[in-house]
Write a structure and sequence with these properties.
heterodimer; A: 267 residues; mainly alpha; 70% helix; 0% strand; globular; B: 266 residues; 12 helices; 74% helix; transmembrane helix (chain B); ABC-2 family transporter protein (chain B); ABC-2_transporter-like (chain B)
Chain lengths: 267, 266
Amino acid sequence: MGEGLRAYGLIAAMWVRSTMTYRFSFAMTLLSNFSATAFDFVVILLMFGQVEGLGGFSFAEVAFLYGTAGTAFGLADLALGQVGRLGKRVRDGTLDTLLVRPVPVLAQVAADRFALRRLGRVTQGLVVLVWSLFLIDVAWTPARVVLVPVMVLGGGLIFSAVMVAGAAFQFFAQDAAEVTNSFTYGGNTLLQYPPSIFAADMVRGVVYVVPLAFVNWVPALYVLGRDTPAGLPGWAAFASPAVAVVCCAAAGLAWRVGVRSYRSTGS
Amino acid sequence: MRLYAAVAAGGFRRYATYRVATAAGVFTNTVFGFILAYTYIALWDERPRLGGYDMPEALAYVWIGQALLATCGLMGGGFEDELMERIKTGDIAVDLYRPADLQMWWLSVALGRSAFQALGRGVVPMVVGALAFDIALPERPVTWLAFLVSVALGVVVSFAVWFLVALSAFWLMDGAGAVQLAWLSGLFFSGTLLPLTVFPGALGEVARVLPWSSLLQIPADVFLEKRTGWGLLGAYAFQAGWALVLLAAGRAVQRVATRRVVVQGG
């Protein structure tokens, strides 16, 4: 574990140095990474230019949901976003090179072409989150205060687990990288809006099947003083870290199965 | 002409080979369609007739957007990475030797690809959307044909934009930043996130005359029969006008780039 993290750090640092060779291009990608996600928020602003509330939620509350989901996803995307490229390596056989090195494969795949520009997404999410904290009308208790950083970090872990599980799936279906996008990017979009606007079956799906609801919906609704979704008990608001641990364990298992069943193209 | 038809057919066949990727893309488009549809329902519940659309029309807009995402290159033309890589590595020299025009060659590839994407990635999300939601469908059969013509023009405009972006690699070498900026403007100003008719005031007016409105907003309006008769001709003229201007610009840039080209690599 420690060895893997050290390798990850070294490889990532190498890619950061390499990126810095093309400074202008890096500045442009960082800026556009920031603005790309900012446009998501512009859409929400445009929507609230037309309406007072969405599904019974005020602008401040939707901004809070947006900020928590965006920051959590941004952290996962920065740390592990590169695992989505695994399918390409399986297809062209370059994964073999990684297998013979005395470093955990996951660390190598995750740090491969480490994209520092993804900091733009994290920053944008954090800006909205902090702003929303000033806007929302909440009776702050110690539990609620603690829940905010806990949900962002736990949510980041849950998204990371989804990314690793998606990458493991690519050992079997190399071209299916896009399926993961519907859970990562799609999940991020879903969680930016209040659960009250979606069909009950969709909400149940992200609570009980792919537990993305624990990224922010469940804890955030507690912070906002609203009912928990999909008939969950009240204490579920504090379950995000536990859910994150279970998700990471499941993703680790899936990864192992994937690596074991890998067969090189031989070319 | 026969040459370019063969290249287009090759583009079609090439993307038809990636069956798993196509299925994965259809799945993702459908998931996003559902998510967007519910946000639109919440929005149109509060403000019926927003942007001149009623609820079934707004929902049709969502699914048209998902169906055209790959076809009209709303999130990337699908060829620019390859072309830029060829410029970066110097392989472009081989392309310039060929007895074919660079721009026409890649346009043919793009048309073949889009034709496949329309069938492979457009039809299924549209059908799922029509079954799962109450969406507006054309009343007159001829509208379907008018819609396809508008989509075809949108594909050409999209190609022209992405070709210009790709040529920037002659000067920038690493064109990732330019691609991202183009991706961003395309996503926002094509109306993929929110119909351009919902954009307020000056922002809406500017967005509606930019080339990106040819990619989704105009085809969708043709589909929803907001543009008929002379309005339809006006829409076609707008799209064709942008296509010509941007293709000419691409041609001019290509001429400058090839005159000063210093091939990379050894």
